[in-house]
Design brief:
By secondary structure, this protein is of the alpha+beta class. The chain has two domains: 32 residues; 99 residues. The protein contains five helices and six strands. A three-stranded antiparallel β-sheet has the order 1-2-3, with no helix packed on it. It is elongated, with a radius of gyration of 20 Å. The N and C termini lie far apart (54 Å).
């Protein structure tokens, strides 16, 4: 592993820990040249289905885009990063279990809405307003009434 500080190629693993859900390995490394320490994360490489956008384009699934959706919807809400990560893991597991080579972006949006509805009603309404492309206040009212039930 190349040192991020001095670009030396000889580094040594000092400590290895398995993540809480066993889906991730955290390694502390030490550069044998500059003696600085850094952390690397190891995760299995999996092939997610390609995402078909509304305009017909096909793009690669990215975890960062999924995380951005959660971050935006849950901004200033009292939900911990661990809970968000668990929700994202559930969505990724569902995508992998489908076994499909492609998936429509609106299906991923529906999965995000399911998770947000369980986590936080305000975040659910925020996300739904964009996802469902609300045009007026009546759309919000109908959604809020649905959430209250």
């Amino acid at each position: 592993m190349k040192c991020p500080f001095c670009a030396h190629l000889d580094t040594q693993v000092v400590e290895t820990r398995v993540g809480e859900d066993a889906a991730l390995i955290r390694r502390r490394r030490r550069c044998n040249d500059c003696d600085k320490r850094f952390t690397t994360y190891e995760r299995p490489e999996v092939n997610f289905p390609a995402v078909i956008k509304k305009d017909g384009r096909r793009v690669e699934f990215t975890r960062n885009k999924l995380q951005g959706s959660f971050t935006l919807a849950l901004r200033k809400r009292p939900i911990s990063a661990d809970i968000i990560a668990a929700a994202m893991e559930r969505i990724e597991e569902k995508l992998l279990s489908l076994g499909a080579r492609e998936i429509a972006s609106d299906k991923i949006g529906a999965l995000v809405m399911q998770e947000l509805k369980k986590l936080d009603k305000v975040a659910y309404v925020r996300f739904a307003s964009v996802y469902r492309n609300f045009e007026d206040v009546d759309d919000f009212t109908a959604l809020v009434d649905e959430v209250r039930k």
